[in-house]
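FORM 7B: Structural annotation worksheet

SECTION A. Query
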Amino acid sequence: MRKNILLIVLFANNLLFSQKEVVQILSANELKPGQTEDHQKLIGNVALKYSDATLFCDVAEVNAKTNDFKAWGKVYINQTGQLKAWGDSLIYDGTNGLGRLYGDVKMKSENSLLKTSLLYFDKNKELVYYLNGANTIQEDSKIYSKKGFYNTSNKYLKLKDSVKIKNPEYTILADTLEYSTNSKTSYFLGPTFIELTEEKIYCESGFYNRTLEVGQFEKNAVLKQNDQSLMADSIYFEKRTNFSEAFREVVLIDKKENLKVQGEYGHFDRKSNLSYITQNVLFAQGSEEDDTLYLVCDTLLLKEENDSNKSFYAYWNVKLFQAEMQGKCDSLAYNMKDSLIKLFYDPVIWNGESQLTGDSIELLHYDNKIQKLFVKNNGFIVSIADSTPYRYDQVKGRNLIGHFKKGKLAIMDVLGNGQTIYYAREEDGKYTGVNKAICSDIEIKFKRGKIDRIKFITMPEATFYPLKDFPKSKQILEGFIWKNDERPDSLEDILNH
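SECTION B. Predicted structure
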């Protein structure tokens, strides 16, 4: 940004003529009286010197008393070693310090060139400005704005209306931009688009320091990198380290993974591939509302090895919600490469009318649905047989493998130490009795979210009780726990609790 501004800054300093200086006539083919006795008209090969600048033109009129002068025809200004300027005509009012350079205006200094049709300068306000558009070329950068103002006192340049800065490294489109030549900082005062080599940025307020390559972007700020978009009320960004922080109403969108994460604070370290979002975190993945998987937690950590290997880690008060499935645990790991979601510390999954618990639960989740479920150690399945107290269908075992169809639990394999309590019914729904069994391996089929049939893979130890004779002491398997009051009924439930 600094190089892009140097030309205009230099022009400004050199055009603010000192009133203490007098206009010196160096040469002219003819010298004629002007409108008054204080005026002189010079014709042909005119050369004037004012301060350290020399002016050449075809015709000039000079007021020696007020230092007013006008110049016409092939106006050329040469300030030795600093700038050259061309125009069709020039007017300078020595009384109020106002000047204008008209026509095909060009100003050149070293590797910079500015082109406009009218350039103003105001000595008293220490301003140089244009109001009808100007193009500047600075080495490999092109700058355009409809209006531009430079204050030589505080070294601030202000570009307004259709501002565009373009070079091979970046492009800036802005409504209003201020630049401090002292701190080498650009300040954005309206809608601004910044396109860097790998990032796209939008904001309506903020700043960017060219020297440090550090920026703060505010008001509807957006930072886009590859397939990800980061939005927040305020975003701090370091280009060199590829680090950013987001504050208030933080939203991270990943188009490739079709996911969105919301929170109140975000820390994104792209160099180490570790990022996290905290405070009221909501994770959502899916394209259709019914298929979207929602997750809430206190803190969500993102580890991104590459575009095809991303993992999320959710911590504390984790809750899951999907139309066909709900869940709860203390912490969770989601590897997107193998589509595996792992729940730790008191995990519970609800599907249909069934509840599943164990030491840890893993969900194979792809195509926006659960495809398989793995319960490791102390697996337990519970579903309500009816509204009678303590009347639950129950299955427990060392490990469980669940198979899903269209998001619903269809078959469950119990592997090791299997035990069951099942309330058997006729087709009309009347109970025939209760089957309590022990069997190493069991296959369970589900219908409408409830246990429908049980198949014992090995020879079971089973007892069938008439319903009225089933002892109350045997109605609950060891390790039974019913957590249905913790089950979220809707997305609002997990957001509000």
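SECTION C. Observations
The CA atoms of residues 263 and 280 lie 5 Å apart. Residues 2-15 form the longest helix (14 residues).

SECTION D. Sign-off
Analyst initials: ____
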